[in-house]
Write a structure and sequence with these properties.
With 101 residues, the chain is an alpha+beta fold. Helices cover 25% and strands 32% of the residues. A hairpin with a 6-residue loop joins strand 1 and strand 2. Helix 1 packs across helix 2. It is globular and about 35 Å long.
Amino acid sequence: MKIPLAALTAVSLVIGLANGAAAYDGEKLAKNARITMQQAMAIALKARPGTITDKELERERGGSGLRYSFDVTKSDGKYEVGVDAMTGKVLENTREGAHPD
């Protein structure tokens, strides 16, 4: 079943507001990003459906060098999903190991 990006954005906005979307690690970098936190959350949830339990915006190698990172929890474990803050491209979508960084 395909879910339109607009619907995912609306759902992630509601989830984000409920989880305090105004504050996250790296928020001061947001002025440099083309993609908003809400858009990045929608992209991450499309790539890895689940529940976002942590979110941040950080400078990191790969892509444009500015990335949103999300911890997404599912019934089978926790995943890290990285979304380029300039292009919206998914840069990482991997299962967290026993000792996440």
